[in-house]
Structures are given as structure tokens and as C-alpha cells.
Design brief:
Helix content: 10-25%
Strand content: over 45%
Largest sheet: 15 strands, antiparallel
Order of helices and strands: HEEEEEEEEEEEEEEEH
Number of helices: 2
Shape: elongated
Number of strands: 15
Length: 226
Amino acid sequence: MQIKTIVAAAALLVSGLASATTTFNGGAYSVTYDETTTSFGSISSWFGGGGGLVGFSWSVDPSVNVTSIGGAPASATFAVPDFTIWVNPGYALSGALTSSLGNIVYFQSGVGATTSITATGSMSIDGGPVVALPAGALTQTPSSPSLGFFSGSTSVPLGGFSSFAVTGASITLNAMGGSFAAIGAQPQNKLSFAFTANPVPEPETYALLLAGLGMVGLLARRRQMR
């Protein structure tokens, strides 16, 4: 009886781990990710625009913060969910893939107080080699001498692709110097990824197009013969 209980508990655990993987269907594409491994949770919104521009966002949890008091250096790193973007049937995906983060508030008080945010990660296109994502620091936009917000974006030129995987991505918050320095996220802050998705014409559409071109050519030849 005890063995059966252990086996049942193990089965529930495995089932729980398996269900941690979430798939979001964006119509032209799907995103598979594990929402339990980071503080970002589930994809909170998605969007589409002109020219086939599409994308999705995570809300940035308020737990993404760091505080320095009395000038002591403080740093905190927060993992971004590993995720894979897949093309859905009937569509074609292309880049550049643009990632953006904003607008996370900072506060700096006293001489020498500084704050910064940097982002890193790795990517793989269509199951190819894993390479580093472009890394860089987000830009500060002051709204007063001591208060402002961070925002920034990075684009990766891809061309056409069927899948795009991001692994080991994270953002690092740093604060130090002065009497007080802090960075704090709010739920309205977004971590977003955008790319292009366009429908692929069905074979019947190509056939109709070729037939139409053939008719145009035939009429043009008849006019020349008259």
C-alpha cells in the first residue's frame, strides 16, 4: 500500500512538471514556454500591426527590483522564460526579431548614485547553432534629477524562419552609490518580442494567378497579331 502511494505521488509530480509547459497560440505563430521557472509567469498580451507585424508580451512582476542604501553595491538577476516561437500552418515568419523592455522606474539620491539594467541570453534559429543574443544596457530617460525610467530594444535580423528559440536569457539590475538608489518594476512594464508574420498563398491561389497571367499574355499576343 505504501509503495502504491509513493508511485501515485511520483506520477502526480511528473504530471505537474509536464503541465508547466504552456503553449500560446497567436494565430500565425505559437509560443511554447515554461511559466513556472521565472517570475514573469504567463504571456499577458499580444498584438498585431501593419505590414504583418505581430508579437507578444510578459508583464514584469514587481519582484523585479533592487535597492542600495548607503552606497553599498546591490545587484539582482532575473531569468526570462525559455521560449520557442513556431510558425503555424499557412503562414511564414520573418525578422528582424525585436525585443524590448520598459518602462522600469529608477530612483537615485545623493552624489554618485547610479543604476543600470543589462540583458543577456542565447538564441537558435530553426534548430541551428546556439549563439549569443546581442547584449546591451537599457537607456535611462530622466523625468526629474533623481527619478526616471529605463527602456530599450534590440533587433536581430533573421530573414525567414520556421522556429526561433531563446534560452538562458536574463536581465540584471544594478544600484550603488549616493545615499539611496533603487530600481523597481510594475505590472504595466512589459517585456515584448515582435516579428513579422504573413499568410502563405494556397496552391490554388498560385494556380489562379498563373492562369490569369496566361490569359493576359494570350490577349496581348492577339492584339499584336491584329
